[in-house]
Amino acid sequence: MPNPTFRNPFLSHASENRREAEFISEILTSCGIQPWLAPLSIAPGSDYRHEIRQALQTCDSMIVLVSTQAASSSWTTTEVVLFLEEKAKRPVLPVCLDATEPSEVHQQLERYQKIMMDRSFFPAIEEIVQALGSSLEATVWPQIKPSPKPQESQDRRFADRRKTQDRRTSPLQMRIRKGIEYEVIQKRMGYEKFDRIPQSPRLHQKLLDGILDELSHRYRFEEASSGIAVQAGMAIRSTFNGAWASEEGKSLLENKGLVYFTEYFVRLLFSFYAIFSLDRRQQERRLPGQQEMEE
User: Fold this and answer.
1) At what angle do helices 74-86 and 48-58 cross, to 10 degrees?
2) How much is the pLDDT for 147?
3) Assign residue 214 a region: left if phi > 0, alpha if psi is -120 to 50, beta otherwise?
4) Confidence at residue 279, expressed as pLDDT on a 0 to 100 scale
5) Do residues 70 and 38 lie in contact, with contact meaning Cβ atoms separated by under 8 Å?
6) pLDDT in tens, 62-91
7) Structural contact between residues 269 and 275, judged by C-beta atoms closer than 8 angstroms
8) What sign has the CA pseudo-torsion 277, 280, 281, 284?
């Protein structure tokens, strides 16, 4: 269960790191945490500085995105100072986006254990979430057990369940989608997530290779309808090729942007497969009732 003490962190960042801040904010929100992030948390027409100062007083924790840009930002330093002046015992999480030390943003930040995000995005996200007393969910839906001779009503239930699964977004689904957007599209390929790009063999290969590298060694796949284990690369490759070949996939890529194609691909992936984080295999296999009994 999330720790109620740390549910409303102030997310301090330099304007140049807004993209990373918004990624973190979205994932924290999906975990039941309510981060305060300027300018998204400021209503139109509000006094910008007043709203920030008020949030610094009321937020129960702080996440500071440490970078070369933050080190040269007087406003980031001011936010840290004002936050610590209000209640020095509130937790502060320095999150390093590059080799910059927290003390380069403000000397007092060297007292706090830092989280490194310069090499791998989502392990750092998990550290942040855990430090705030929450956790990333490991599965999207309960595993559907195989049925050797499914009744018509059972088939209908499976179909209904798949429709329901397509409509909802879990923390793991968000995690995979954001990982592709950040690690593959932006960092590896050098595109912005809203870039509109015509289909080409080169784009197909680069995007598929990046997704395979990002997902295949981190997750385990089972067919949603039968529970049969499937090789990760095969599941990713077949789903990606299907999304790529479809009219909807082509239209999203060329008319709306990479982020919309990614969302479509991930939605298809989760409709076909139950997906499990490899480092949480034992935890994932326990049913909610079993977990409560053990606790």
Assistant:
1) 40
2) 36
3) alpha
4) 62
5) no
6) 999 999 999 999 999 999 999 998 776 889
7) yes
8) negative
Secondary structure, 3-state, 196-226: CCCCCHHHHHHHHHHHHHHHCCCEEEEECCC
Cα 148 from Cα 166, distance rounded (Å): 25
Alpha carbons 19 and 117: distance in angstroms, whole number = 14
Give the residue from 78, 62, 71, 91 showing the smallest Cα distance to 17: 71
Helix (H, G, I), strand (E, B) or coil at 252: helix
Q: What is the largest CA-CA distance in the chain?
A: 67
The CATH architecture assigned to 4-131 reads 3-Layer(aba) Sandwich (3.40)
Tokens of 117: 């995000």
52 in Cβ contact with 38 (< 8 Å): yes
Amino acid at 80: V
The predicted pLDDT at position 165 comes to: 42
Q: What is residue 19's predicted lDDT score, i.e. its pLDDT?
A: 79
pLDDT (0 to 100) of residue 109: 94
Local confidence band at 29 (pLDDT 50, 70, 90 cut-offs):
confident
Residues 6+ apart with CB under 8 A from 167: none
Report the length, in residues, of the chain. Answer: 295
Tokens of 30: 């999906």
* Every domain of the chain and the residues it spans: 4-131, 152-285
Which range is most confident: 84-88, 161-165, 268-272?
268-272
